[in-house]
Design a protein that fits this description.
Number of domains of chain A: 2
CATH superfamily of the largest domain in chain A: NAD(P)-binding Rossmann-like Domain
Strand order of the largest sheet of chain A: 7-4-3-8-9-10
Number of helices of chain A: 8
Helix content of chain A: 40-55%
Number of strands of chain A: 10
Order of helices and strands of chain A: HEHHEHEHEEEEHEHEEH
CATH class of the largest domain in chain A: Alpha Beta
Oligomer: homodimer
CATH architecture of the largest domain in chain A: 3-Layer(aba) Sandwich
CATH topology of the largest domain in chain A: Rossmann fold
Amino acid sequence: MPLEIPEVVIDRLPTYYRLLTNLQARGVAVVSSQELGEALNVTPAQIRKDLSYFGRFGKQGRGYSVQRLTDELRTILGLDQRWRMVLIGVGRLGTAIASYRGFEPQGFDIVGVYDVNPEAVGTELGGELVVRNVADLARDLADDPVDIGIVAVPAGEAQAVVDVLVAAGIGAILSYAPTAAQVPAGVEVRQIDPVLSLQGMTYHLRRRDA
Amino acid sequence: MPLEIPEVVIDRLPTYYRLLTNLQARGVAVVSSQELGEALNVTPAQIRKDLSYFGRFGKQGRGYSVQRLTDELRTILGLDQRWRMVLIGVGRLGTAIASYRGFEPQGFDIVGVYDVNPEAVGTELGGELVVRNVADLARDLADDPVDIGIVAVPAGEAQAVVDVLVAAGIGAILSYAPTAAQVPAGVEVRQIDPVLSLQGMTYHLRRRDA
C-alpha cells in the first residue's frame, strides 16, 4: 500500500465499504467496477482508480471479490476494532446524536456525554449515560482516554471544547457546530453541516437554471 | 469564469463564504491567503489556487477585499436568492431538521413536510407546517415546484422518495438516509451521514497509532 492516498479517495472509501457490506449481506460474491459505479453514481474508471491504491483487487474482466475487498477496506479504514467517543453538548441536537442507533453497529461507542448547563448535568441520557460537567472533561480524558470527540455545542463555544479535546490528545473530532474549528496538524476534523452541503448544491442549481 | 470548476473546489467554497461573512460582520476589510488558510486549516497556496478559478480577486501582497470576495462567492454559489425545500420524513431526525434554525438565515426555507405514517400526517410541526401524506408528494410538487428535497426516511424507503423527487424535476437532494441514493446525471445529492465521516477519520487514527 502506498503511504500517501489522496484525501478525496479516503473520503470515498467508507461509501465503498458500506455498499460492499450490503452486497455481502445479500450474498453477492463478485462485483464489477461497472456495478459499483452505477450504485454510487460515479464512473467505473473512478472506481478502478480509487481501488488501485490498495493493490490489484480486481482481475481484468472478472470483477472484484466482495469478501476480499470488504475485508481489506475494513482493515484499511480501521473498522476491525471498536472506537470510543465522547459527546459534548446535549441540547436538542446532542440529544438526537446520543440516541442515534447507527453508531454502535459500526463500532462506534459513545462512552461519555458532557454539557455546560447545570440543569443538564447529572441527568440521564437514553437511560444509560449520565451527563457530566464539561468542566471535568479534561480530567476525565486524562484518566480514561477516548479516540474521538463529537462536538454539538453552539458555534461560539466550539473552539474552546475543541481545544480541550486536542490538549487531551484526541486525534479525531466530529463537529456539528456551524464554524470551522482550528486544530493543529495531525488532528482530523469532519464537519457535519447541512447548510454547507446545501450551498455546494445551489452552485449547480444556479448553473442548471441558467 | 471558467466553465468547469473542480467539484472539490466547489465543495470548499461554502466554507470560504461562511468565514468571509464572519470577517465582514467583524468589520474586517482585507484578508490574506495566509489568514484564510490559518482559519480553515488549509495552506495559503490552496486558498490562492481555489480562488484563482474566479479571477484575480487578490492583489499580490495586498490580500483579498472581504466585501468583493463575499459578494462574488454569494453570486457564484447562488446565495443571493431564497431556495424552497421540502422535507420527507418527520421521525426523530426529521423533526430535529424541521426545527433547525440555521436554514432560514442562509436563504433556505422548508415549505412542505411529508411522512408516510398516518399518525404523523395532519399534525403540526413547529407550529407552522402541517405534515402531509407522502402519497401526495408528486402531485404537490407538480402544482407547486420546489428547488431542493431533504430526505430523512429510513434507508429502505429512501430510494423511492428520491425517485419521486427526481421525477418532479428537483435538481438537488440532501439525504440523511444511510444509503447511497441513485439519481440520473444532472441531479446533485449530498449525504449527511456521521458514520461515513467517522470512518474517514479512523483511517487516519489507525495510521497515527501505528
